[in-house]
Amino acid sequence: MEEIYFGILTVSDTCYNGKNSDKSGKKLLEIISEGNLIPKSKLIHYDIVPDELTTIAQVLVKWSNEDKCNVILTTGGTGFSERDVTPEATRNIIYKVAPGLMHVMMQESLKVTPLAMLSRGVCGIRKKTLIINLPGSMKGAVECLTFVSSAIPHAVHLLRNNTDEVVKTHIDVQAKGPEVPLQIRKSKVNVSAVAFRARKSPYKMLEVDEALKCISNLVQPLGIIKLKLSDALGYILAENVTAIDPLPPFNASIKDGYAVIAADGSGIRNVQDAVSAGEMPKNKIITGVCVRINTGAPIPDGADAVVQVEDTELVEASEDGTQEIKINITSTPRVGLDIRPKGCDIEENSVVLVKGTELKAVELGLLATVGLSSVSVYRKPIIGLLSTGNELQNPGEKLKPGHIRDSNKTTLTALFTQLSYDTIDCGVCRDNPDEVLTTIENALDRCDILISTGGVSMGDKDLIKQVLKEDFQADIHFGRVNMKPGKPTTFATCNFKGSIKYIFALPGNPVSATVTAQLFVLQALNRMSDKFDHTKIKIEVGEDLKLDKERPEYHRAVINWEGENGPIAYSTGNQMSSRLKSLLSADCLLILPAAITSNEVIKKGDKVNAILLKC
To answer: Which of 131, 138, 338, 415 is the most buried (most CB within 10 A)?
Structure first.
């Protein structure tokens, strides 16, 4: 068995302020460090925070973002007090709940005291970390940890995909008795009457612009959270940020040299003092004297220029060389020379970043400059990725007859991850309505937006739309789009356990899935996190391109940015929707209209609209 790494978070205003000692957290620390209750347990994090929802959530997010932290135990903040918000903070950041752990703790605690019914703890999973809320009392925290300790190693192995340990546990369980099979839900969709299936789609064909407008009208931002600057990269700012101080906060020297009175001109000066960055000048400068000054240091009162050291000569120094007594200024200074005036970079009370700004490296640096340690941002959506099809196998498996490897999930995971979105693997689902229902239901429990690939065309095994409509009472806002590739792209919403869920059912062909994800899904993700939409440009084509006679085409192309008259786009070759290789070098999609006459082409040198790709 490999080591299990723990974080212990004590939530208590009084412990945080030093008014009480942290008995519960220290006792949990002792138990974990000893490794007797949970074998091979090891402590890697311990902290105390006040009863503040945002602060608790920030620590949980930070620790669970680390691959090494397997389990986080919180103690405190689970009661009825106004400031008891640990369950709310936990619920806000977990991807899925683990109610069984809480049920066991409650069941066993009630045997100890009936007051256990007042505990409001939450257990759940974020990424690959299990989070368990324990009571604030030392006795209650230790008891509850003991009640669930036997399940923690197996939970960690499942989250870490430790197949050997998982199989070993399953064998041990099976030796003691039969394992309860997965409960597959029964779908309302009847697929037995294959001959009578619909042979024409009941869904209106939308133009691409109509479909994009539909998404824009329906999808809403998920809400606002507060994050530490270290966790806010890639998020969208949810408020204007105003500078509370000017920058620089004082007149500052741009160079190493001497602060002088410009009206004194060139010539001999007495060196009165020295001032470095981080120090305040001691004396006011008067005529005939100067102060040695370093870059970034405050300008002494009375000085109105800085002469760089290169424009001076030493005239007199102390015998040991530690003091400059007199210098000769060889150039004539002017007022303001090499001085950064107070507030010249950022004025006090000025808006430095506006709501809607994406926080990248420079933006985060600017927020730190104006004194912020945390910032309000729009929450990013959690994306569930589901592949469907009887023919699919995982990439590392040897192909069976009639099967293909699933590339869609790998491609889409990489696409969304490089755009700083969190994804969840919701598995591969066979073309069976009961399995489709069960898998989608489990997926919607864990994500804000579900992206499926396959199962949306007109075959008798294309079940996604039927299951969404009949089993989830989903509103299917469009089920066909007039474009190539990606015609059967589907967008739906449903109310799932009190929350609106967004669902994109994309075609199964790899290029179709990737192009429609770029075009439609990214628009939804941008709306949910309040980002801007696609960048479009007008671009010249470098070769004749034949137009499709039925549908507008989103043609994969690569851009040469150094053309004589501006950027030029060239086709990546064969545009079959199954040919993922055509996307390998593509950095844009050329928007080509449908042909009006047969054999119509876009001529070399013509200009067309293009969407810049995000991958």
So the answer is: 131
